[in-house]
Amino acid sequence: MKKSKTHIVIMAGGIGSRLYPLSTPEKPKQFLDLLECGETLIQMTYNRFKVVDPDAEFWVVTSETYAHYITEQLPEIPCSHILCEPEPRSTAPCIAYASWKIAAETPEGEKPCIIVTPSDAYVPDCEEFALTMRSGLAFAADRHAIVCVGIAPDRPETNYGYIHSSVTDEKKNSVSKVVSFKEKPDSATAERYLREGGYLWNAGIFIWSLDTITSELRKHAGHTAELMDELAPVFFSESENKALSRLFPQCEKISIDYAVMEKSDSVFVIPGDWTWSDLGGFEALSKITGKKY
Predict the structure, then answer these.
(1) What is the pTM of this model?
(2) What is the DSSP string of 10-53?
């Protein structure tokens, strides 16, 4: 059986405001070597996913302001795979744009899988990470399923959103149905989550087939899907940027979580039992580097 093509979509449009003045709107955290390891966060993300699938196609969604950082730091990614949003509209339009572009490059009859990931997380164990991602890809490849990646919590963390799984004792790299998504809790609620089990930190990494995400967007974010359909005929042409500037700002500004995840009945979660941080603030950065900021 022919292996499905894997596409990795890296979302890199954020400004990392909680790490100001290290991270600035001119050069946000994903383009910085915050861990002083010789690689920027987006380079670490790219290299981590190369372990998952060395033959994967990579895409980056960012803003025009940051496009030159992508070409400088990730020269392996073709310019046609650097997608520049004319303005930020949150993650649902970002993912829709990337998905429709992938569809335009996909030969008829092929059924690729997609992983969508933030550009700025810290995951030191690339091999264990790769095993989890491959398990998620295998699950999503032949069924209508949205697979979220959850991190097994080791403390009652209040800075992360949670995914409530239908299974309280998660087996390594097993997939289970999502019961609900939870916003960042207060400390008492976070402690209860840890006691009860079945609650995982939401890593913001999603795995699905191309067919799944496009059909789910059509069902739950129909206006955005219609705008992508209108844009698609000029993909990879000189007319694309002008059409994108006109159509993309018309998309509803909404996260993929609110647009699709909380409405779909096909959402699953796979637990990652490996060290992870979103490096969302100076406290998170200090835990890894040992430095005081």
Answers:
(1) 0.95
(2) EE-----GGGTTTS-SSS-GGGS-TTSSSS-HHHHHHHHHHHH-
